[in-house]
Amino acid sequence: MWNRIKSGWSFACGQPFAVFALFAYHLIWGVALYKLVQSVLLPLLHRYPNELSPEAVQLFWIEGQFQLMKTDMADPLLWWGLALLGLRLLLHPLLNAGVYYSLHHTKLNAGYRFVEGVRKLSLPFFGYYALQLLLMLVPLIWLAPYLWGHFSKQASYVELGQALLPALLAYVGYLFLIQLFFMHLQIGLTRGRSPLFAAIFALRHLPAIVLAALIVLAITALAAAAVMASAFIWAGFLALVGVQAYRLAQMLFKVWAIGTQYALWAEKA
Questions:
Q1: Which of 8, 50, 150, 168 is the most exposed place for a label (fewest CB within 10 A)?
Q2: How far is residue 61's CA from residue 58's CA, in Å, rounded to a whole number?
Q3: Could you tell me the residue range of the domain that residue 246 belongs to?
């Protein structure tokens, strides 16, 4: 298992263009989302009462609720939010196509193989992504009424959390397995295998696939915890630089997770 994880790390380190492309994508997405929220919240916060009397604060929130519910103030925000969401749904499979193709064609130029992957694999990756989103949303048909039923029955947030925790954990586990399953469908497509072959492979080697993914996820979580803890302990400019540098490391870990599954596929398929 450790050999596969180390091979996955080697794959990830050999994909600098893919890592930086993912980093740039998430950076631009984060800045756009921040600017969108800032454009709405900042004018509202300028109107927040300086004197924090209960009456003034209550009037502020009542006025804000009225503007949101009875006027079209939120319409531009909703349209921009939908546009950003649509753009994200469009770009996500494109970037995945570039990353997976780069992992398979390591002898080509880094930038060329990424762009070539986007050109050759975009359409089938769109199909897989649409199917994945559909399968991720289907359980909400039953989960949403279940959550709402408990929300109206429980007397406290602690009791509500205890009642909902098993269902939420089951749903998170389901999402995790769906993501791994489609990861192997995409690896199979990149290697020229049929969806049926990739699906059978994923089901046959499911324990090894899950174990490898959990190990990489645990290492990623430990690294994130270490960075956040250091930022709290040594707050300042260096902590800010460390947090921003970790965003780049996050993309490396993401490619590492895919590379580990690719290494398992290369060994077993």
A1: 50
A2: 5
A3: 1-268
